[in-house]
């Protein structure tokens, strides 16, 4: 009798895995609360900047690869995301557990490479449906991640937070994501990586810091020119 039960369980697991969507595209809406991200000496900026900004991202995937990119710029405010990332494109190798984060500086492309290290802690027991997908809640670094096993594992709009399933929403005070649409068709060129130079994480931070400082200097020069004209 036990063997029969075991066989039934294995069949159910096989059916669930075979019916899970193995190709498609997730559209996320990202919301950053700028006011809550300001340091103590930046609080005076609250009166001149909006409380939140919103961006949209697209995560194309199949059973072996994934590609995350921004698809719409809804704000002209320059803001470095929490965690120091400012990647234009992120590519995931789901087979070899690798992540390549691409970014550009002065029209040159660079990328860093890291390993996908899945989070194995158990769910806190909460559950909900998102776009018809069954999701369970996982809490990490004061953020709640809603994960479904009905899509390939490790899919996430916020690396390095990867789980044994796909993240469809992230809740926190400073930054949040929610899947607004899931499509079955993807661009055949979605997983083609751009030509770029590989750099270390430290080199990437230096390059991005130089880019931010350069943008600040350009802005200051423009302001000086405007004053001179007056």
Keywords:
230 residues; alpha+beta; outer membrane lipoprotein receptor (LolB), chain A; twelve-stranded mixed β-sheet; 3 helices; 12 strands
Question: What can you see in these coordinates?
Answer:
With about 230 residues, the protein is an alpha+beta fold. The protein has helices at about 1-20, 35, 200-230, and strands spanning about 25-35, 50-60, 65-75, 90-95, 100-105, 110-115, 125-130, 135-140, 145-150, 165-170, 175-185, 195-200. The protein has a single domain (about 20-220), classed as outer membrane lipoprotein receptor (LolB), chain A, CATH 2.50.20. It contains three helices and twelve strands, in the order H-E-H-E-E-E-E-E-E-E-E-E-E-E-H. A hairpin with a 3-residue loop joins strand 10 and strand 11 (about 175-185).
Summarize the structure.
The protein is an alpha+beta fold and 230 residues long. The protein contains three helices and twelve strands; from the N terminus they run αβαβββββββββββα. It has one domain: outer membrane lipoprotein receptor (LolB), chain A (Clam), CATH 2.50.20.
């Amino acid at each position: 009798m036990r063997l029969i039960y075991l066989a039934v369980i294995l069949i159910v697991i096989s059916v669930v895995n075979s019916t899970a969507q193995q190709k498609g595209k997730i559209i996320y809406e990202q919301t950053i609360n700028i006011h809550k991200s300001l340091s103590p000496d930046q609080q005076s900026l609250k009166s001149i900047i909006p409380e939140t900004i919103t961006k949209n991202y697209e995560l194309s995937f199949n059973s072996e690869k994934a590609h995350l990119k921004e698809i719409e710029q809804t704000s002209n405010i320059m803001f470095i995301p929490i965690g120091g990332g400012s990647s234009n494109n992120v590519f995931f190798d789901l087979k070899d557990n690798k992540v390549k984060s691409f970014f550009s500086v002065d029209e040159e492309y660079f990328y860093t490479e890291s390993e996908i290290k899945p989070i194995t802690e158990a769910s806190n027991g909460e559950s909900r449906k998102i776009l018809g997908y069954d999701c369970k809640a996982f809490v990490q670094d004061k953020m709640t991640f809603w994960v479904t096993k009905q899509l390939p594992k490790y899919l996430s709009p916020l690396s390095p937070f990867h789980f044994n399933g796909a993240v469809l929403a992230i809740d926190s005070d400073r930054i949040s994501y929610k899947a607004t649409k899931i499509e079955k068709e993807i661009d055949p060129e979605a997983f083609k990586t751009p030509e770029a130079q590989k750099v270390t994480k430290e080199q990437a931070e230096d390059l991005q810091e130089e880019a931010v400082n350069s943008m600040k200097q350009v802005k200051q020069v423009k302001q000086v020119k405007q004053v001179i004209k007056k």
